[in-house]
Structures are given as structure tokens and as C-alpha cells.
Amino acid sequence: MQGTGKVIKTEGNTIYIQTEKKVACNYCHACSQQKDKNILKIQHDKPLKEGDSVNISIPHNLVIKFTILMYVIPLFLFIFAYLIGDAIARYLSASTNTLILSGTVSAVVSLTVYYIFLKWYDSNYKNNFKNKPTITTL
Questions:
Q1: Which of 38, 58, 78 is the last residue of a domain?
Q2: How many Å apart are CA 54 and CA 124, to the nearest integer?
Q3: What is the pTM (predicted TM-score) of this model?
Q4: Is residue 15 part of a domain?
Q5: pLDDT by residue for the chain (138 residues), tens digit each?
């Protein structure tokens, strides 16, 4: 994933770049989001000044990794948890309404736990510069 931005602030090797917000930015938290602009915090060795224009890229493998974490795993988790809850209710000879309710409750609880895990994962790894966009050209 590629984009362009403008350097708005530098602090040693840390550079803050402002980019235009794109549709994909609504779901990715690689940067600080404002209403219609994103602020990226990037480690960079070469000196840059405020106002410099730069090209930025996010490694393709990170895009795939976070897509899987946000969409694929929750989908399979929901289906699996629903089936497990339904199977347990069937084993206990529950009524039809209870079957539906137990599957739904187990699916919702498992997704809630998973999204709490994702929030923890995000808070622990968002300052890891391996998971951040990089400056490709100046």
C-alpha cells in the first residue's frame, strides 16, 4: 500500500507525516487519525525538514496480516463458537429456542474476548516501528 505525505514535525530520528485519509484508513490504526487527515510517526535516518513531501509504503505482508486478524479470524471464530454452543445445547437436550440462543451467546462472547485481545495487541504493538509505514522516496 502506497501513499504520499508531508513532513509536519521532526524529533531526532522520529518524523511526523501528515497524509490524506483514504477509505482503507478507517480500519487500519498504523497512524493517529484525525477527521480527514492522518498523522504517521515514522523512524527515519535521513534528515528531513518540515514541509518536505515524501512517499510512504506499508509492507504488503502487514496489510495481509492485519486483514486476517480483523476479518478472517473473527468470521471463523464466530462460526466455530456458534457451532460449539449449539452442539453443547443439543447434547444437553435443549429446546429449539435454547439451541439458537446458546449458539448466539457463545459466538458473541467469543468475539468479545477476541476483540479485547485485539485491543491489547494493538496497544502493545502500535509503537513497534516494524509495524509502521516506511518512507520509500523523498
A1: 58
A2: 28
A3: 0.61
A4: yes
A5: 777 888 888 888 788 888 875 545 545 555 555 556 777 777 777 778 888 888 887 777 877 888 888 889 999 999 999 999 888 888 887 777 777 788 889 999 999 999 999 888 877 776 665 666 777 766
